[in-house]
Amino acid sequence: MGARIGMALVCGLALAVNLRADEKSDQKKIQGKWKIESGLKGGKPLPDEIVKTGIIEFDGNKIKSTAKVDGKEQTHEMTFKLDPTKKPKAIDVDMNGKPGLGIYKLDGDTLTICHGEDDDPRPTEFESKEGSKISVVVFKRTK
Q1: Count of domains observed in the chain
Q2: Going by DSSP bridges, is the β-strand pair 32-41/44-45 parallel, antiparallel, or unpaired?
Q3: More confident residue, 7 or 31
Q4: Which of 52, 54, 120, 133 is the most buried (most CB within 10 A)?
Q5: Measured between alpha carbons, how far is 115 from 136 in angstroms, rounded to an integer?
Q6: Nearest one of 41, 139, 26, 17 to 81, comparing CA atoms
């Protein structure tokens, strides 16, 4: 009985270390500048101006987003936290004290983020249905 508990403890610790390594790994991989490649909100394409000018930059636990809207450059700064242990992986963004709950997938130099608006529940799939408040944005790392 004691050997089984010991083995379970060792396996649990190894799993916890691997999960923390994945979290740190994604945290490290996401750092840098990313340009919008495409996006949908409420099932409709994001405006061309936002797609052409939209950039996000991850620096530590901070995000800075910049894009032109109606010809004027807008910048927003937020903090974020990743949870790669969730299925799908989760990203929480603090938007002026309000939680923004989303999901993400990171595949090399492609980052996809899906989220709703302030205080919306976390999406469960990478889909933006018509009439919803859900956005799905695909980013490419800038070189």
Answers
A1: 1
A2: antiparallel
A3: 31
A4: 54
A5: 7
A6: 26
